[in-house]
Amino acid sequence: MSGFSSSSVAGRDIVALEGVTKRFPGIVANDSVDLSIRPGEVHVLLGENGAGKSTLIGMLSGLQQPDEGRILVDGKPTPITSPRHALALGIGTVFQHMMLVPTLTVAENLLLGGPWWQRPRTEELAARVAEITGMLGITVKLQAKVSELSLGEQQQVEILRAMLRNSRLLILDESTSMLTPKGIDELGALMRRLVEQGLAIVFITHKLKEAAAFGDRISVLKLGRKVGEIPPERFRTLGEQEIVSEIVELMFGKQKDDPEAVERPVRTARAGTAPLLQVADLAVAPTDNAPGLSSISFDIRPGEILGIAGIDGNGQKQLAEALAGQRTAAGGSIRLDGAAIETLSVGERRRRGLRYLTDDRLGEGTVGTFPVSINFFLKQVGAAPFWRNGVEKRAEIDKRAAQLVREYDVRTPSLKTPVARLSGGNIQKVLLARELAEGAQVVIFNKPTYGLDLANTLASRQRIRDTAARGLAVLLISTDLEELLGLCDRIAVIADGALVGTVENVDDARTKVGRLMIGLAA
Amino acid sequence: MSIDTAPTVSATALDATSGATTRRDIAHRLLMTLGPILVALVIAGCILLAVGVDPLAYYGFVLEKGLFSPLGIQQTLTRMAPLLFLAAGLIVAFRAGMWNLGGDGQFLLGAVTAAASAPMFVQVMPAWLALVCSFLIAMVVAMIWSLVPALLRAYQGVNEIITTLMMTFLGTSLANVLVKLAFRDPNTTVPQTRTLPVEDRLPRLFETTITSGLLLGLAAIVIVHLVMTRTAFGLKLRIVGANPRAAVHSGLGVPGLTVAVFAISAGLAGLAGAVDIIGVQGNVRADWNPAYGLAVIPAVFLARMNGFAAIGFVFLLSVLSIGGESAARRLGVPNHFTLVLVSIVLIVLALAEYFDHRYNQSRRA
Lengths: 522, 365
Description:
Chain A is of the alpha/beta class. Chain A has 19 helices and 22 strands. Chain A is globular. By secondary structure, chain B is an all-alpha fold. Chain B contains 15 helices and no strands. The two termini of chain B are 22 Å apart. The relative contact order of chain B is 0.18. At the A-B interface, α2, α12, α13, β18 and α16 of A face α1, α10 and α11 of B.
């Protein structure tokens, strides 16, 4: 493969960034960043939400142009003018969201983009794919439909596609965020084999452990600036734990052994008080694409955090939606502070103090094109003092929104900014502000830290603790066992739409929950 | 997480103008609107040349008849009345993300019921009350006509583009049948409804032939604009339009709002029919179908569903259609050349938009 041979001159930069600066209205996304990308190295780009990782990738893949500074390709200053140009230079990008056509086969996807006047060269493709996959030790089913593949397999197809286009630099943007732990390990091994072939890889992540496990060189971005780099020579001399603590030092400027290490929960649940939320025999009929729920029963007292553990897709979302009123229950009862609410509408349940913090922040949690200020009040449209006699009081809305922005530390250029332009962590803060504001009694958190970076994860967890400490009942649905163990008073395990057991969060909870999750009795 | 930063970044770039100097913004907007219209006029002129008509003469007639002659401008302003009502109805529907394309059926049914009821009412009650009642009846009939697509969309998720278009065929036929069978004026040979006497129609403005329906139309579209942008109800509709799942999540009664949107949109279309009959025509002939409903859609899109901009585009459309009709008669160009002109304007505007967008992206990227 020509792509490999031309890039096998080790030690020279394939691509280098010199003092690259990129500004957007209200923010400096990248501030004179230097970066050197070499063949045979996995260069990890690490940073929190909004640190400027995606902008950097955008400039490398030709989607954006730097305002200042320059990009060198093979030592020559080269403006990368378009994605097509980037591909021609041998820079292939695997974006976080899969860019494959699900209804076509793998082979058809790989053949897309060929000249339209020629018949697709299927045999040639098969031969080249065999060559590459043999070299990398992966198997790719060319005749399988993409929709039948797991996310990990789809990612391999995307990497394969980049290889077929003779990429010498492969950019993997947050590639592990959608993968299972096993898939992540496989990707790590695949990256190792790719760099052994002489490729350069830029691996973007915000997970410290992946960075330490898969990288050769780590660059840390913070608020658009590169705040530190661990070169390969140093990288090899450090142990994983030392690397993690050094990165944390770089990213947060504070020393911490394991940032995700959890404190023991503060026990605030009062055993004597009456439950705030009582659910009995809740059932939901299954639909075409979602499992149903059967005989779900639990109580949550004021100040208590009940966790729902389980592998994703076992009815967690259905449970949250049935409680919030977005999904019709087939049977059972839901009592809020003693009063039955199972027949009430979504809006009425909210007015009674039931809050649902959705995990689908952009899909249903917000209206992306609407300003931040309006998104704070999406569930209160028409309510005083923000609307009087149905007429919008913009001054009141802006005043309260500014207050919430300060209180919840939402980083936004302005109140008028469409909410979709904020980073995931800041969108989550908007949702937290909306759901936790006055009048909440019971709060359902559905995967509240999913996809957030470390600082926002810790901040969100603190909000959950504070919520319970205020005497509210909290239902915490999460696929992150550490999170549940760190926050909850009790943990229930959901499997196939039913609660298979509930465990007090004491010393051996981890093993008990683990046993329940894999289908054994606790 | 950078799930959203990637779109974030490009989206920020697109919007850079909106926050910046607004005056330059407006100037840019005007240039982007008027420039393409001029280009479209040139292209349409070339087509006229190709069929052997002097384009300058054609445009001269259009401007003279549609804009500069006293009679022409009065006709233009009169024509605006029903178009404004239709535009108001479309703004409500489109902003709520519902594509009510059944305006013509709703318009004609409103027109026919108004034409049938007004001459009867004026005999039994004061003229002003009779007209109000006819307006109300026209509105209610059009609303009822929209119930089928509204309920299908609200409770079964059936695509309203298809249902409203189908209902418009049924609606125009039904209107035709009603004129011929139920409301036919026995004193005429052509099938048409009884004629509302001129003195009972909507008063004319001052000493002109402009109908006072124009003022009603202007009021309707301004009210609709303010309701959509300034009130809780309008915000709810916009939430449903921008993100229906967020509407459900926020506890809005989406099915109810859907029915309300269709009712308002169709009701305004019915009023458009009534204002044209009660203000101008006086009766409905069986084969009468001006197809205003479809003609207004481009104007509303060009105005980006902004009520004030829509007034401007509706005016332009009226000038073109009034001027085009008479220019066509004088120069032997088919009457439908107006539609050709409007569609060329639309295509050029869309292209200009596209290139402007590309230019902005490449400049900021």
